[in-house]
Write a structure and sequence with these properties.
The chain is of the alpha+beta class. Helix content is 24%, strand content 41%. It is built from 3 helices and 6 strands, in the order E-H-H-E-E-E-E-E-H. It has helices at residues 22-40, 44-49, 122-127, and strands spanning 2-6, 52-63, 74-82, 86-95, 98-111, 117-118. Strands 1, 2, 3, 4, 5 and 6 form a 6-stranded antiparallel beta sheet that branches. Strand 4 (86-95) and strand 5 (98-111) form a beta hairpin. The longest helix has 19 residues, at 22-40. It is elongated, with a radius of gyration of 16 Å.
Amino acid sequence: MFVELELPIRTYDIDFAGIVSNIVYIRWLEDLRIQMLAQHYLALPDLILTGIAPVLVQTEIKYQRQLTIHDRPIGKMWMVELENVRCRLAAEIVDGHNTIASATQTTIFIDLKTRRPVRIPAALRDRL
């Protein structure tokens, strides 16, 4: 599973020093995860109708370079590990040939009624 997105930089993404705020990277990772689900399984609204939803349980980011409003970053995300209940994803934010940030995230799926973890949907597992 792999997804790639252009990541727009908005004026409100810039901090007082003129660089993209670290919190924006979290939003971009969310955009990448949602796109990955839509592209390889179900769009989030359709998934929620099944009674389950993905939940983020951990994020690690290594910031390597700064971005400004003039940059045009690309986000890339892929599946690293799939267990019964957990998924581990890796991501990179790049600008040209430069890695701006790298990240890993761990997600689980939960039953929306009980709020308890459930197995990763079989249809998603089969696609992998």
